[in-house]
Amino acid sequence: MARITNFLAQRFFQNAPALEHYGELLSEYERSGLAPPHLAMEVTSGDEGKLWACVWEAMLYCHLTRLGFGVRGCVKKSGQHGPDFGITHERQTIWIEAVTPSPQGIPQDHLIRPKPGEVKLRITPHKEMLLRWTSVLRTSTTNLSAT
């Protein structure tokens, strides 16, 4: 976890609440034993998409456990990991794959946070965002029907 903590300290050096929040989330997820073995490598890779995908998985894990679900992971016979999480609700197993669409097609200006005190007005790229969401849903349902 030290590798992740050091990375987050650099990434959020001017945002102590974010550093604390993401550090706690990722730490709890890593301690659970359900985080992928490459969690630290993904978080510290410098790839924003990988960072936020890991944060989303950690957020989902923490949310499900706080709702009282006994969250478990899945490893298939081939050794490959299956869906990220499994929960049981009303005696039915529900498998959950945490998916984060990448910001492809989203203008770079929308991905950069404004500087402190800076005000930016811009049009939200609704069409591009919708295309990314539906692309992820299409891919996910195609993968489900193939299994």
Task: Please give a structural write-up.
The structure is a single chain. With 147 residues, this protein is mostly helical. The protein has a domain of 47 residues. It contains six helices and two strands, in the order ααααββαα. Helix 2 packs across helix 4. The radius of gyration is 17 Å and the shape is globular. The mean pLDDT is 83.
* DSSP, total strands: 2
Q: How far do the termini sit from each other? A: 34 Å
What coarse outline follows from CA principal-axis ratios? globular
Mean pLDDT: 83
In the predicted model, the low-confidence regions spanning at least 5 consecutive residues are none
Number of helices: 6
Report the oligomer: single chain
Question: Any idea what the radius of gyration is?
Answer: 17 Å
Structural class: mainly alpha
Strand order of the largest sheet: 1-2
Q: Could you estimate the helical fraction of the residues in percent? A: 40-55%
For the report, how would you describe the main beta sheet? 2 strands, antiparallel
The fraction of residues assigned to DSSP E strands is: 5-15%
H-E string: HHHHEEHH
